[in-house]
Specification:
The protein has 10 helices and 14 strands. The longest helix has 17 residues. By secondary structure, it is α+β, with helices and mostly antiparallel strands. The chain has 3 domains: 88 residues, Rossmann fold (3-Layer(aba) Sandwich), CATH 3.40.50; 123 residues, D-amino Acid Aminotransferase, Chain A, domain 1 (2-Layer Sandwich), CATH 3.30.470; 59 residues, Dna Ligase, domain 1, CATH 3.30.1490.
């Protein structure tokens, strides 16, 4: 651990105001305990949109962002912290905004030459025309996480309820073709990609319950895939991370077929709970959870926004 971290008063900010509040509280508690186990001066804060004032009130000069969703990973708190001159973990405001918005992310992935499923954005009041997509499809809020408001639609009769669920979370949603492949996640730490982990949900797809209630989901490191192919998967994830201008760390979710990789999204503030994927991947790479939390701060402190 860098000696520089010992001079910081660290606030782990969690909770927030989004629909992912409960997950964020769990992430924050885990990170706080890890940092304390390393002897660091860390304090856990359950914050709202007045987060900067709450952080200043405890005299923190480094913030570990364990917030998910709106205000946490969409660039808002990052912008506010920069204006206040307070260092923080993870990507900067613009990268967070790009990562949070699936439409903007997909445009960046396309520009970077990455493969993509067929997709279309709808706004409030819009719907799909007949025969626009072959089923099954996924319907998702454009700016959301933890699979809240996400539906897999197998037939047109189920489309209205799926649209309603997504529009309940956001006024802009994305419809995408289902890619038949293996769902994987790749954590990014600094300039390297961690081992890919395959997600095998027992449910219809990797929804909120599958992510956070241990509802039969298996997490498997795909040893049946050649090392050369795994390196290509990791390279695709790193390209997606860089395409959005992310820094410090992230988690990239992909669908992997025999020959191609389809990045779906980049999580600029990935989950840090007991079932979260980034910690699992780090552990596979020989990095214990507490060390991972420290490394996430160290990688973030290398970024230009903390200099001067």
């Amino acid at each position: 651990m860098s000696a520089d971290l010992a001079r910081y008063r660290i606030a782990v900010v969690a909770g927030g105001v989004s629909s992912e509040r409960e997950v964020s509280l769990r992430s924050g508690a885990a990170v706080h305990a890890a940092l304390r186990s390393k002897g660091l001066a860390a304090q856990l804060l359950d914050v709202d949109t007045n987060a900067v004032s709450q952080i200043q009130a405890v005299g923190a000069d480094l913030v570990f962002i364990a917030l998910h969703g709106a205000f946490g990973e969409d660039g808002q708190i990052q912008s506010a912290l920069e204006k206040a001159g307070i260092a923080y973990t993870g990507s900067g405001p613009e990268a967070c905004r790009r990562a949070m918005d699936k439409e903007v992310s997909r445009q960046a992935f396309r520009k970077a030459g990455l493969s993509e499923p067929r997709w279309k954005v709808l706004r409030t009041g819009e719907t799909l025309g007949p025969n626009e997509f072959n089923y099954p499809i996924f319907v998702k809020p454009c700016c959301g996480g933890s699979s809240i408001g996400v539906s897999q639609v197998r037939a047109s009769d189920d489309l209205p309820s799926a649209l309603a669920a997504a529009f309940a979370e956001d006024d802009k949603i994305i419809v995408e073709s289902k890619i038949s492949g293996r769902e994987m996640a790749v954590g990014i730490l600094g300039d390297r990609a961690l081992p890919a982990i395959e997600i095998r949900p027992a449910r219809d797809f990797y929804d909120y319950a599958a992510k956070y209630t241990n509802a039969g989901t298996l997490y498997v490191f795909p040893d049946d895939i050649s090392e050369e192919r795994q390196q290509r998967i990791r390279a695709s994830a790193l390209r997606a991370h860089r395409a959005l201008g992310c820094g410090g760390y992230s988690r990239v979710d992909l669908i992997v077929t025999a020959e191609d990789d389809f990045p779906l999204e980049v999580n600029a503030s990935p989950g840090m709970t007991a079932t979260s994927l980034l910690p699992k991947e780090a552990a596979r790479d020989g990095i214990p959870f507490a060390d991972l939390c420290v490394m996430m701060m160290e990688e973030s402190l290398k970024q230009v926004k903390f200099h001067g």
